[in-house]
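Schema walk-through. Below, the input block comes first and the output block second. Nothing else is stored per chain. Lengths vary across the set, and this one has 117 residues.
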Amino acid sequence: MLDARLRIGLLVFCLVLASCNQEAPSPSPQATASPSGYATQSFTPAGFALPGGGGCEGDVARFRAVMTNDYQTGNVKLSVYRQISDEIDHADHLCASGSGAQASALIRSTKSRFGYP
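--- output ---
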């Protein structure tokens, strides 16, 4: 009797263990492709320099460079990177349309909300 219980117990254990090893279903593809370069470097490269320029063009270029670097070093998750990049793109459009003050304000606001100085 004990031998039968042991066999059944081992069989149940093996079935449970086998179910743990099944692959999870693959996630559905995302609408936009992931930017390349996530965590491709462990630190900011020695030659890294922030873009120059003044006004909203400089604000947009510098923050975009910082975000690209933070993404490439793995310091920001993809979801946050995309969210910030969308706001940088919006600021870039505002700047190009002549709304420089609004563009710079949007960059400052985005930086503040996400903890950038």
